Structure formats: C-alpha cells, structure tokens
Amino acid sequence: MKIENWTGTVDTFTWIYNPITFNTEFVSNHTVTTIAYQNHHIIVSGGGIEPRSLVLNGHYSGASKWTNYRLMAKHFQETTKIKKLYFESDKFYLGIGKQCNKTNTGGRTNFIDYIATFDTLIGILLDNTEKTSGTNAGNVTTYITEISGTVTNGAVDITITDGTNSIKIPASALTTGHTFKYELVKMVDSGSGIFVSEYAYVELNGIQTNKVETTAGFGILKLAPATNVTTIVTTNITSPVKKFRDGWCE
Amino acid sequence: MGSYIINVETPSGVTGSVVADIGYNYTEFLNEINEAILKFSGTGSVKRSLLVIGSKVEIKRNGTREFYGQIESIDILDSGGIVAYVSGFEIWLAKENGSYASSPYINVASATINSDIIGESSYFTAGTIDAGTNIDFRVNKGESLWNGISNLKRKTTQDIGIDYVNLEVDILDHKGSSTSVATFNDGINIRNVRVTETYPKGNKVRVYGKGDGNLQITATAEDATSISTYGPITRDITDKSLISTSEAQRLANAERDITKDPTKIYDFEVINPNQSLVSGDVITLNSTDKDLSNEEVRIVAIIRGMRGKSEFLQLQVTNLSYSQLLKRKSKVLAKIEKDNRDLNTYMDGTGNVLTWSRGINAKSGTPQKMSFYIPSGFITDEAGNLRVKSMTLDYDIDPYRRGVASASESDSNPALDGATAAASHVHNPADAGHQHSDPLQTSSSYTGMTDQGADLFSGTTLNIGWNNNQLSQSVSGTLDFIYVRVILQTDFNNSDFNAGIRIHVAGNYYINRIHMHADTGISIRVIRETFIFPIFSSISSTVYVDIYSSVNSSYTGWLQVYSANITHTHTISQHNVDSGTSSISSSNQSPSVTGNTVAHNHSVSVGDGISDGGSVNASEVDIYLDFWNTGTSTWDNKHSILNTGKTLDTDVDITDSGTYPDAAGYWRIRIDPDNASPDYVQGIVKLHHSMDN
After folding, report:
1. Percent of chain B's residues with pLDDT above 70
2. Which end of chain B is flanked by fewer CB atoms within 10 Å, N or C?
3. Where along chain A do its domains lie?
4. ipTM entry
5. What is the fold, at CATH topology level, of the domain defined by A2-127?
6. Is the pTM for the entire model greater than 0.95?
C-alpha cells in the first residue's frame, strides 16, 4: 500500500507492511422519501454513492517506526492536497485523509499502532496507468482526468463533450496558441490558505479561468466501460491529449 | 432527477458555470417577482469572482432556462462559502421608471397601455399581450414599470408572465392552463400536504381613488351570497392612481370576486419533481384525510431545486378565485413599501394655475407685450421658497383684426363757381377739341343664295297615277324665297303618255305641272323647270315632289332647292360730324375744363365695424421673458426663444429649464412676429404653482 500526491510533487510513502486491516465499504447516496403512515416509500437514485470512508488499522515497528508513522500521518494531515491511496498495487482511490489515531499502549512499546481513515473524492478505484488512447477497461464509468493541447483559434469557442456532459470555453477567454488544460479535479485556494475542490478545472496559458460553461449534463467528462476515449470530442484544440484511467467498482 | 446547470455572467461579461453544492432553489411565482438562492460550501478565488453583486444567474433544467435573475445580495463565509440571493430578472422592471408620455389613458385598450409600459423597458420586450379591456388608467412617471403593469393587471384581472428565454413580458388573461393539467394524489404523487382555509377577506369591497371629500372617486362592490353566509366583511382599498369611477368600479368588482369566498391555500411537496408545470396552471388534488376530492386549484408558486442531497419540487396552490401567492415576510414588506409609494406618488394635488392672457395686433419690431404680476404670497411658502412647478405660454397668430368699417367720402367733386362756372369743350381738333374715330362698316358683304340640298331617284318604275313624295329636300332658315328645280326624265320611249309633277311644302301645294301626250321622241326630259316660292319668314320644313305617270314605266328624277335672302343692312359705328370725313384719330377726347381754381371740401365718414384680414402674414415668432428691474426701472430680458417656426403652439416652456421665475414681481412676455405686416397676436401665460397649506 502506498499514498502519494495526485498532482505536483509525488511524495510517495509506501507502507513497510500493509495495515492489518483496511476496510472499505460503499453506501449508496440514494434518498428515501417517507410516505407518512404507509409501507410504501419513495426512492430517488442516480446510481451514485456517498464518499467512501476507508479505515486503515495497522502498526509500525522497528527503528523507523516513528519515521514511517510520521510520513504516513503527514499525508493524512495534508488535507489541502488530493491524495492517491493505493488499495491495490495498481489501483487507487482519490481523496484526503480524515483521521489518524495513534494508540499508545504500555504493552506495545516497540510498536506504533494507528487507525487512519481516508475520505474519497471519487468513489471508484482508478487504475495506476494513465491512458491516452483505447477504451476504459474497467467495470464502471470512469472520468477523463486531463485534456491538454493548444488553442487553435482564439476567435472560436472550445467545446468538449462525452455525449452527455459538455462544456464550453467561450472565444472571449481564448487566445490563439495558448495552452489549454482541463483537469478532472483540483484543490484551489479560496484565498486564505483554505482549499476547495473544483471539478472541471481549466487553465488557459497556465492560468485558471472561470469561463467554463456547462452546456449539458454535469459538465464532468466521463467514459463508460469498453468505450474508446475517441468518443470524447473536442473542438478548437490543436493536438488534444485526452487522459483517463480505467475505473473499477472495487 | 432533473439535470441542472447554473450559469453565471458577471457585470463585466465573464461567463462560467458553478455548482451550488450545499443547495439551491428558485421560484416561479404567479404575478410576483421570482427569486433564487444559491449556497456554496466553499469557492476558489477565481470561481468566486463570478459570484458578485449584479451577476446574472441562469438556471437550466433539462436544457431549458427556467430561471434568469440577478444577484442582489451575497453572504460570504469562511473558506469562500457563499450564499447568493438572486432576484428574477424582472426585478429590472421594478427598478426602471418610465416616462409614460401617454398617461393618463382615457378609455384605452389595456393591451395598448401594457405595450406602452413594457416598451419603456431596456431589458424586456412585450411578448403575448392579450386584449384585456378598455380602461381609464394613469401611471405616474415616478412609478416603476412593474408597479405600472401590476396596477393595471389588478384592474383587468389578468396575469403577468415572464419569459426568461426570450426576455419577454406576457400579459395574459389566464397564465397557465385554465383546465386541469394534472391530478395529484396525496401519498402517491404528493406529500406533506397542508390545507389552510381562512374566512373571506372581504365580501364588501370599497375602493377609494383620486380626490378627497365629496369629490373623491369611490366604488363599492359586494356579494350578497357571501354576506348572507359570512356576514358583511368590509374591505377598503385606497388606490390613488384611480382616475375614474368606472375604473374604480372595475377594481372593486375584481377584488370582490377574489376575496368574497373563504381563502384556501394548499402547500405540499411533489414526490417526483420531474413535472412540467407553470404557475397559473390548474391542477386537481385528491386527499381523503384532508377532504380533498377532485379539488381544482391553481398554482401560485413553484419552488424547486436541490435541498441537501435531494431534489425537490414544492407547490403552493389556492382556490381558483383567489389565485394569489401567500406572501412571506419579504413580499409583505415589499407590498407595504409599494402601497406607501403609490400613496405618495399619486398625490391628490394641491396645485393652482394662474393665467394671464392678451390679444392685440402686432408686427415685427412691435411685439405683443403682456405684463403680469406674480405675487409672493401666491408662489412662495412660509420659508420664502418659490413653489412654481411650471410656467408656459400658449400663443396663436391670427389675421390682422380691424376695429373700424371702410371709410366713405362725400362732396368729393369740386364745386366750381365764378363767371366761367360752366365748362365748355369743342369738337374740332383744330381747336383742341375731341375727335371721333373712323366710321366702320361692320358688314360689307352677304350671301344671296344658299344651297339647301338636292334629291335624286334613278331607274324607278312609277305607278300609274300620282307617286307621292317621290322627291324631297329639307329647307330651313329665315328666308325670303326658295328656288325649286325639278327634272323628270323617262327611261323608255313612248310617243303618247301623260306625265306631271306637283310640289308642296308643309301641306301647302304650290305647283301643278302636267304634260299631256308627251312624246319621248321630242325630249326624254319631259319636265325641266325651276319654281320660285316666297317665304319671308323663318322656316324649317321639307319640299316634296309628287310625280304623275299614265304608264307603268321607269323614270329618273332630280330635285334641287336653293334659298335666297334679298334684304340686308350695313351699319356704321362712328362718324366725324364736324369734318364729315372718316380720317380722324380718336385722341384728345377729354374736354379741357377751364375756369377758376376754387376751394372745395372732402367729407370723410368712417363707420363702426370689425373685420379680419385675409391671411396671416407671420410665419413664426420670437418669444422674450422680461423682468421689471425696480432698481433701474427697466425691463431686463431673462430668457428668449427665437425663431419658433410656428404661429401656433401650446405649453411652451418659458422658464429656461426651470430657472425662471426666480422672484416675485412684474414679469412680461413679448411675442414678436417675424413679418413687417401686422397680425393679431394672442398669448396665454400659465403659471402652475403649489399651494402652501
């Protein structure tokens, strides 16, 4: 198991041995509307789930036990950065640390016991391999993690669509030849060192723009299982590189 | 669940989409300004820059714009958390004031008035405007467009519809469907139903309009059925914008119908929010435990959005006649503010108008002058402030008006006296007398004979005996004689037969000529002869020739008629009696009077009378406003309006944009026509000032 940063410096920490237990569960985020005094009730569901709360229960020992614990704890405390928590060697969850509980017991002086929890931003496992072509080989709909290229014509809108979700960056925001970059999610500063996750984050020439218009769906680009990334259609972007990772339910 | 997109456009035109992760809702009210609330747990500084005061917010559901508004208020919290309060874009109708140039309207179609009001908006255009009714209506220029159309729709019992897609305002007889578009059953389609029923708000409505005391416009409408059931419930409405009794009565009737029955308000949530409903739609409710059985109600509010993790759709409906939104706190406060504003906007008026008028003949350089005195007690308040609202001039140029009749002169001939009182004159040119012109023969020739025409027959077999009217020729004129020439020729040979003619005119027979035993061997023209008949009068008749034959044989005959006037006259117009000659010129015909030069009198009489000139000479005027300077005892010119281009105009502002009159005292208007010939110049100065009570 390992944890590292989603963007920027990778700063990988690899467990010297995996936690004793690392539980995962998912809870549907459908809603139930109760009909008073009746047995029938109303369910509304979009197929989504609540943020997963992953629980890691383990310990460190040996000469580097403090070092290892502190490296791990640092990642869990660094909640302004999105983390990749690898549950399998090649699959990870995106999220941030929620809690890290170090248990001090008199009988285990050579050990550092801990219970750490991790909240996911996206409730599916993403493959370690970032693809730029081919299909989503996973078993659930995954997300386009990044699209990059250059603006073809500064007088024309940029549009991107997966067939259901579409976004537009109006020509008024564009300059011919400037770099274009779409990212699935990024932590952005609210102005006081407090960070907020923003989806469909777009930079033009290296600077974030707020001129991202959702024109259809939720504006977050997705790729269904067995669907080729070529179904992601862009306009007015020269040499677009569309990145994605296979998505897995568990 | 519906697919929602929230787009924001800043006042500077930056457009982007946002996700209100905590929740959001927006409304579609019936006849009220819509609103929306967006809540964000946190925002980045770049994204947050979209959410500023004045940003426009568009909320689309399933691809269709259902709400469009403007951020009016923002709460900014920790970590960029934001709560944005958005008013429907029609809030601009409440912010914009119109000029309402055509107000007040007298018996004008409400559709025309609505179009006028909406046409003043910079943000909306008129969409569907139903005909409504003819109405008296006024809207003050200090009034907002929204209040204008709201006041009007209240009297026409119409609805206001806002089309956010096309940014149009609709004025509809019934917004939404007037027949039920859906049936909602409690526990299946809807839940959390609350029915609120209240006593009628008023079954005897009294409306008070403009004016006060006995002159106040009032109207009353009541419903006997409701009164008998619930007792009289008087509801007073004061609307100072009402300017006629008929308009007040219309409002009273409309309000009576709305409030005469108990008010029923139903609140509930729709379980499946994916409903295509609009405010104003009629729907049907069923709920056995709320005693609702096929209850037809009207939607007055639709509130939808996301609350926590759930999408919701909440409806407020009322009984059909009420159809009014149950006002929450903010709406109640807004209505109180509106009522107060209306009350202050539509003042009864305590103004007074002073007028001065004059008419007099004037011409360019000699203008009509009209002095008037503005007393301080009339136009200043107790603090000495001038309270003049306007000062205008009406002027009119008419043709010059004469005040006397035409002059007549008697004894105009000089009375000669003395020894040579009788004037004499001579005819001999040699004596400087007068002459006559040459004699002139006015007719020098005449026509003696006139051909009246001829007749002919040829190769005609005549009967034995008289063949009447075989030849004929008309004759007319004032004649002395007619000459009738006849030729009768045989077309056969015979040595012993009889032939003859007889001629008659107007039944009178003049000639009988018979040839007995005629012989063609001698001549085939058995008769060739000219006859003369005296006429000596005016005639218009026909000369006929009858022909006699003793054989049944072929003849040829001719008839020729001439007329003759023997008598005629020659006239001579003038002749010189002195010289007896005709070589005299016509000059020097006036006698030369000689005698003494004598004194004589002219007696001229001018009568009473009034008359107008034929036309106006001036084409425009110059207008001057003067003030009497008591220090210099001169008129100081304060303002002038030159070359008006008109000879008739009304309500010409002479205050120089409100500058004058700036003091009590003597003021003067000069109206100077542009033509040197005089015209009759009339002027009326009207000074509108407030009364200091």
Report:
1. 84
2. C
3. 2-127, 142-248
4. 0.74
5. Elongation Factor Tu (Ef-tu); domain 3 (2.40.30)
6. no
